[in-house]
Amino acid sequence: MIVFRPEKHSDVGKVIIKHNDTFTGSTITPEIKAQWLRDIGWTEEQVQHYDNAAIEYSIAGRSNKLTDVFNLFQRDYIWIEGFVFKDYKYARNTININGTGNVVINNRFENLGCVYSSPWHWTSGGVLRGDVTLPVSGKLNVVRNNYFQSIYGETLCYDSGSKDNIIAENTFIGAIGKNSDYSGSESSTLGGRFENNQFNAFAFNYSGGSVNGGTIWLDVCVRDFTALSFAKPNSAVKPGNVVDVELKLNKAAHETMTFEVVPVAGDARIGKDFRFADDQKITFNPGEKSKTVRVEILEGYDLDQLLVLKIQPVGNTKAEAVGGRNLHLFKIKRVTKSVLTVNDVGDSMGHSIVVYYESGEIVTINAKTREGYTFAG
Question: What's the Cα-to-Cα distance from 68 to each of 73, 139, 179, 342, rounded to whole Å?
Answer without folding.
Answer: 10, 20, 21, 86
